[in-house]
């Protein structure tokens, strides 16, 4: 029998993975094949890179930032080991631990909270990162890389401390929101006594494509978002712009940095703007998503083109100011999501973009771009940045007993 025995979740109808996965599991010896891919609903947890970065972006996300409640490095290391075991099981469509999800003894708390029983793995990925303050708390400041520093305050920021920062982060992405929420809920539960939630964010409707097989999605302003995003099928560009190289410490080489920004969009004001104004602000047409100098979505934007009134793509347009041409060739791998968090009590929706980007160096690459956008982007009139965080995301895990944070805390 495999160390990962058939779970009650499978017995309750894990139809998404199906009998084919059970057969694949027999070949690998621990439940589900590491080679399982598109069409199975299972994405390999271990590998050279953490899943959830260049993985084709799923439809839903639950992101959580946590703080350490103590300074015991051993306790943190033990938690990360337990988190890894639970994460690997959940991404395979299993409960967080072996045993009955509904115990026979009704006076025993179930090991798994149970809301994902009967659901497939839904392409769940779990991505782990560490924040700047963790190194001070654990007395390992000599291991903190220079780029891992809190982001500066940008012009117009209205950051809520309760929605910013964090010692650790977990990004759960899936094609079923309940699967993503279940994963975060159970990891948070496992961390009781060692970590506590600082903030979290639910997202829907991805706002970027991370694979050439995906169509470009739209944000809540109704425009296609992330047309020129880096893709999984561009390994050389990923090496240049996303993955940390020899400049990073041993524990981070092959990993990356995650930048998170909660951006409230004043959609009611935007919705009263006429179409021409909206398109001039963005620099693209709203229907096809083409730059104002082209006819197709993927036509290159001609930033030098001029018309009777000046540049065809305005100097303060979002497309121009966010372009690689205007930022020294810098590019980011975007992986954001839309959000609607109720209303603000004044008749306006608290809605917007939860911006997530992966980048090789946030200080030299993201910060200059964001400073330019905050200062000059016409779109800024309709945006309000309310949360901010940065995390270092280590590389993937090797087979065996390798676990999150092992190389960092060794």
- Provide the residue-averaged pLDDT: 91
pLDDT < 50 runs, ≥5 residues: 1-39
Per DSSP E runs of 2 or more residues, the count of β-strands stands at 11
Kindly state the percentage of residues in helix.
Answer: 10-25%
Q: Describe the main β-sheet briefly.
A: 9 strands, antiparallel
- For the CA atoms, what is the radius of gyration? 22 Å
Number of helices: 11
**What is the total number of structural domains?**
1
Shape: globular
The H/E string reads HHEHEHEHEHEHHEEHEEEHEH
Instruction: Kindly estimate the percentage of residues that lie in beta strands according to DSSP.
Output: 15-25%
The span between the termini is 33 Å
Structural class: alpha+beta
Cofactor: heme b
Protein name: Deferrochelatase
Subcellular location: Cell envelope
EC number: 1.11.1.-
Give the key terms.
410 residues; globular; alpha+beta; single chain; disordered N terminus; 19% strand; signal; 23% helix; oxidoreductase; 9-stranded antiparallel β-sheet
Describe this structure in words.
The chain has one domain (8-409). It is of the alpha+beta class and 410 residues long. Strands 1, 2, 3, 4, 5, 8, 9, 10 and 11 form a nine-stranded antiparallel sheet that branches. The protein has a two-stranded antiparallel ribbon with strand order 6-7. The protein has eleven helices and eleven strands. The protein is globular. The chain starts with 7 loop residues before the first helix and ends with a helix.
């Amino acid at each position: 029998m495999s160390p990962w025995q058939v779970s009650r979740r499978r017995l309750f109808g894990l139809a998404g993975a199906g009998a084919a996965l059970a057969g694949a599991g027999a070949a690998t010896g621990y439940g589900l094949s590491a080679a399982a891919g598109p069409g199975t609903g299972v994405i390999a947890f271990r590998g050279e890179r953490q899943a959830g970065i260049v993985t084709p972006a799923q439809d839903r996300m639950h992101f959580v930032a946590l703080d350490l409640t103590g300074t015991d490095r051993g306790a943190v290391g033990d938690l990360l080991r337990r988190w890894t075991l639970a994460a690997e099981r959940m991404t395979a469509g299993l409960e967080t631990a072996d045993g009955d999800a509904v115990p026979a003894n009704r006076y025993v708390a179930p090991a798994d909270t149970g809301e994902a029983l009967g659901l497939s793995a839904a392409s769940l990925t779990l991505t782990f990162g560490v924040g700047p303050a963790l190194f001070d708390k654990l007395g390992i400041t000599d291991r903190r890389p220079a780029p891992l520093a809190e982001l500066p305050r940008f012009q117009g920021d209205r950051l809520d401390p309760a929605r910013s920062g964090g010692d650790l982060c977990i990004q759960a992405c899936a094609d079923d929101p309940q699967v993503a929420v279940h994963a975060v809920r159970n990891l948070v539960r496992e961390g009781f006594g060692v970590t506590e939630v600082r903030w979290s964010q639910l997202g829907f409707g991805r706002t970027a494509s991370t694979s050439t097989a995906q169509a470009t999605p739209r944000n809540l302003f109704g425009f296609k978002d992330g047309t020129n995003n880096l893709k999984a099928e561009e390994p050389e560009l990923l090496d240049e712009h996303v993955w940390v190289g020899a400049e990073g410490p041993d524990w981070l080489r092959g990993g990356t940095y995650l930048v998170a920004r909660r951006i409230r969009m004043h959609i009611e004001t935007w919705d009263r703007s006429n179409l021409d104004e909206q398109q001039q602000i963005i620099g693209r047409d709203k229907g096809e998503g083409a730059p104002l100098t082209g006819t197709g979505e993927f036509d290159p934007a001609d930033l030098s083109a001029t018309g009777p009134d000046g540049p065809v793509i305005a100097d303060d347009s979002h497309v121009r100011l966010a372009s690689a041409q205007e930022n020294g060739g810098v590019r980011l791998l975007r992986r954001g999501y839309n959000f609607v968090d109720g209303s603000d009590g004044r008749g306006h929706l608290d809605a917007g973009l939860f911006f997530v980007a992966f980048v090789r160096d946030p200080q030299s690459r993201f910060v200059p771009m964001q400073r330019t956008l905050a200062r000059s982007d016409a779109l800024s009139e309709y945006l309000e940045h309310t949360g901010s965080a940065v995390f270092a995301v280590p590389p993937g895990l090797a087979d065996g007993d390798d676990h999150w944070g092992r190389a960092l805390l060794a």
